[in-house]
Amino acid sequence: MMKDIEIISVDSDFQREELRYHFGFKGGYLTELWQNIVHIKSKGGFEALGMATQSVLYGDANVFSSTSEAGGNALMYTLTNKALQKIINHEFNDPIQLMDQLIPELYDEGKQLTGIDQLNINFVYNALLSVDNALWMLYAQENGLSTFSETIPQAYRESLSSKNDKIAVMYQISYDMPIAYVKQAAENGYFVFKIKTGFPGDDQEMLQKDIDRLTEIHEVLKDVKTTQTSSGKVYYTMDANGRYPDKALLKQYLDHARKIGAFSQILLYEEPFVEENEENVSDLGVLVGADESIHTEGDAYKKIKQGYKAFVLKGIAKTLSATLKIAKIAYEHSIPCLCADLTVNPILIDWNKNIAAALPPFPGIGMGLMETNGDMNYKNWETMKNRHPYVGQKWAEISNGVFELDSHFYECAGGIFTMSEYYKNLFKKK
Predict the structure, then answer these.
(1) CA dihedral 282, 284, 290, 296 (to 10 degrees)
(2) CA–CA dist 5, 132 (Å, integer)
(3) Given 31, 408, 413, 427, which residue has the most CB atoms within 10 angstroms?
(4) pTM of the model
């Protein structure tokens, strides 16, 4: 029986981290990402830090476009603090149950705060991530749990019971990344390339730019050889972040992929359609994954009926609490899962890595699969890395396109249970 935990103190802070260049996806561009940090204490004498990388553009593109970039981040940070005020002097036994109570209330407050009545629930999830992470850390401490697998409640443990010794890293290619970077990544051993589709512009402009970009990328990668895949070829995944209106337009893109010889190397196409699109995707000839459109368990079942054969988990955007529910449904329906990034900081990479490591190996590559792109996007990445409590560990570094995981990684859960002294010190003077 898990203990009841009373929260007696809450605090928060944030840091603005500049990006090296404008980062384009979902039809927009980011120039910075706020790192949202919360600190909570329990009556039992324990304290925990929770972190989130805020991405308003991912959470709700309408919020992002409705105000300045900093203004959108301020709105999300405000919502985080509203959540903290709701949990102070509150008892909880299970983080999932507490989050289930918070989300409806925070959704209503988020609508008022942003002035957007059809607010995307992902905005709320992203705002709650740091709070959720901190709750899980308190939960683990109060109950004497020290590994990621022990922390997962029994009802969800079977779906996250694998122990991959390798995780393939998806190398993200944004709209404007110089093609020389892609070539260098292949030379460095990357063998799964995530291509951002859905260029800004109307439907035809978007399609043409996406087609041109694929042609450019495939020309560089088509003859690259790798020992990491059974075919010896590198793989592509695409992610439109819900930009395509319908299957007819997407089929034109896929037809072009066939024409240039790239189709056989497509491992997965993520979230191609706007959320209103309910077309069945089982006849597209590629594995189609659902990401932003899965908010709840009901959404997961709906996507399975629509022919989606993969789920993209975002435990570092939608909270671990919500992700556990989706992973369980996927496991029960033999739906493979991978972990996508949110251009998160080094500590959150290991939150994501714990999930990817525990998922069944992804089809076609026989290992875990996750994305991480902070190293190529943050201006101060090396400084941020040094804030990780286990900086320099072999399992924290990418080698030949993979994270190689050993017993130490599993014993310390990638360091997520160890408080970063740097971030802890943000709250010492308060």
Answers:
(1) -30
(2) 14
(3) 413
(4) 0.95
Q: How far is CA 217 from CA 181, 268, 285, in A?
A: 11, 16, 21
Return the CATH number of 154-425, one of 3.20.20.120, 1.10.10.60, 3.40.50.1000, 3.40.50.300: 3.20.20.120
The token pair at 425 is 């010190």
Q: Which two structure tokens, joined as six digits, stand for 299? A: 């959404």
Interval 271-326: pLDDT, tens: 999 888 999 999 999 999 999 889 899 999 999 999 999 999 999 999 999 999 99
Domain 5-146 grouped into CATH 2.30.40.10: no
What is the CA angle 380-193-21, rounded to 5? Answer: 30
Q: Is 215 helix (H, G, I), strand (E, B) or coil?
A: helix
Six token digits for residue 286: 């590629």
- Beta-strand pair 166-173/402-404: antiparallel
Residue 194 backbone dihedrals phi, psi, to 5 degrees: -95, 115
- If residue 66 lies in a helix (H) or strand (E), which one and from where to where? helix 61-66
Sole residue written with tokens 């779906």: 159
Tokens at 51, concatenated: 């972190």
Tell me the C-alpha distance between 38 and 48, whole Å.
Answer: 8
Nearest CA-CA partner of 368 in 414, 430, 422: 414
Residues 153-168 as b/e (b if ≥16 CB within 10 A, e otherwise) read eeebeebbeeebebbb
CA 414 – CA 421 distance, rounded (Å): 16
Distance from C-alpha of 368 to C-alpha of 337, rounded to nearest angstrom: 9
Give pLDDT tens digits for 180-200.
Answer: 999 999 999 999 999 999 998
The angle that helices 203-221 and 247-259 make with each other, rounded to 10 degrees, is 30
Range list for CATH 3.30.390.10 in the chain = 5-146
Token pair in block for residue 124: 């709320």
Our separate counts of H helices and E strands in the chain read 17, 14
Instruction: List for the chain the helix, strand, coil content (%; round to 5).
Output: 45, 20, 35
Find where tokens 């709700």 sit.
Answer: 60
Give the start-end residues of each E strand in 240-309: 266-270, 288-290
pLDDT digits (tens, 9 = 90+) for 56-107: 999 999 999 999 999 999 999 999 999 999 999 999 999 999 999 999 999 9
Burial bucket for residue 131 (CB in 10 Å: 0-12, 13-18, 19+): buried
